[in-house]
Amino acid sequence: MGKAISFTFIFLHILLSTQVVSAQQIMLAQDIIEKIKENVTCDWSETTVDNLKSGTPDSQVTGIATTFLANMAVLRRAKAKGLNMIITHEPTFYNHFDEREAYEQDPVYRAKLKYIEENEMVIWRFHDHWHQTKPDGIYKGMIAKLKWQDYREERDRFIIPEITLGDLATHLRDVFDAEGIRVVGDPELSVSEVAMRLGASSYLGHFDMLKRSDVDVLIIGECREWETVEYVRDANGLGMGKGLILLGHAISEEEGMAYCAEWLAQFIDEVPVEVVPCGEPFWTPKN
Questions:
Q1: For a surface tag, which of 65, 239, 256, 282 has the fewest beta carbons within 10 Å of its beta carbon?
Q2: pLDDT tens profile 26-42
């Protein structure tokens, strides 16, 4: 009888211990968000786009996917991997503030929202504070991919070994496996002083860099073509040799969200964390 009681006690102890461990591994969306707030190096602003786009603070998290943008391909790949919390850098619903009133009856929006809700996916945006933390997470990931750490002179200016504008563009195409890169300027222009403005920064910021005598070429994500593109065309028409390389918004920031997964894994080990790339949206005709 004594041995039976002892066995029962040991079994219950193991069972309860297992349940306690399991309970400790349960992470809610709010737990993840609070950990992020504790680890950024900037103050958290209440006026921000960095908030939940789907799910609730009490939603249970099975895994985290970081990405540039939570499009349908990302959502499906994340679901297949068992990652139900998507930390996205850019909007989910096609405008900066994820406002939805104007297209609540739109078939694309409704189908996407249905997929998100049926699969109990949590989407949280991490844009403002990822740029504001030190170092800027997007730039850190991008510079690491390019291996330009030793060339950095300022936050967004680099002195690289001399190269032609055409060869620099080809190098970037190969590094990022990107089809949609576009270039303005003479492909034979010799460049070594490179400025970088990732994402969709202001055209005035573009002009501030391009007008400098110590900037040969500016690498950006995207711009309105009648602004920065025409500024560079006119600069060249006036004999001021300048280059402009448009990577595309996604290509220019995706590596920053790959680094985000590495950064999160430093203080979140209760659930898996990995990058699920959004990929380049464009393709170029071959013939």
A1: 239
A2: 899 999 999 999 999 99
CA distance 36 to 248: 28
Do 173 and 234 form a contact (C-beta atoms < 8 A)? no
Q: What pairs with residue 163 in β-bridges?
A: 191
pTM greater than the 0.85 cutoff: yes
Short-list 37, 26, 28, 74, CA closest to 258? 74
| The pLDDT value given to residue 23 | 42
Is 137 in contact with 259 (CB distance < 8 Å)?
yes
| pLDDT for res 287 | 75
Strand, coil or helix: 68: coil
pLDDT at residue 254, as a whole number: 97
Kindly state the average pLDDT of the residues 36-54: 97
Provide the residue type at 188 as one letter.
Answer: E
What is the band of 94 on the pLDDT scale with cuts at 50, 70, 90? very high
The alpha carbon dihedral of 248, 131, 270, 34 has a sign of negative
Report the C-alpha gap between 14 and 174 in whole angstroms: 54
Phi (first) and psi of residue 276, to 5 degrees: -120, 100
Nearest to 175 by CA among 218, 143, 137: 143
Distance in angstroms between the alpha carbons of the first and the last residue of the chain: 84
Instruction: Dihedral sign for Cα 244, 249, 254, 256, please.
Output: positive
Count of beta carbons in the 10 Å neighbourhood of residue 111: 11
Cis peptide before 135 (omega within 30 of 0): yes
Rg (CA), the chain: 23
Of 251, 124, 240, nearest to 177 (Cα)?
Answer: 251
Place of tokens 């789907």: 54
